[in-house]
Design goal:
mainly alpha; 4 helices; 49% helix
Length: 68
C-alpha cells in the first residue's frame, strides 16, 4: 500500500509545524504510541493546540464532551 501523504496532510490537524511525521500516519501513530500519547487527530482542534496528547487528557476531554 502506498502512503497517501498529500491526502493525509490535508486532513491532519497537527499544529506542530516542524513535525517530520505530518501526513505519514503510520509513523505518527508509532511515535506517539512509543511516547505514551495519542496523535493529534484524536483530539478536537482547540485541545490539540495545547500539545497535551497524553492518554489521560484524551479520556478526560472525550468524557467531558460526551456530557455536553
Amino acid at each position: 500500500m502506498e502512503c497517501q501523504k498529500s491526502n493525509n496532510t490535508a486532513k491532519c490537524n497537527c499544529s506542530y509545524e516542524p513535525c517530520s511525521r505530518k501526513g505519514i500516519c503510520c509513523e505518527c501513530i508509532h511515535y506517539h504510541r512509543e511516547m505514551g500519547q495519542m496523535p493529534a487527530c484524536y483530539f478536537p482542534d482547540d485541545i490539540e493546540a495545547g500539545y497535551d496528547r497524553s492518554i489521560g487528557n484524551f479520556i478526560k476531554v472525550w468524557q467531558e464532551r460526551k456530557h455536553l
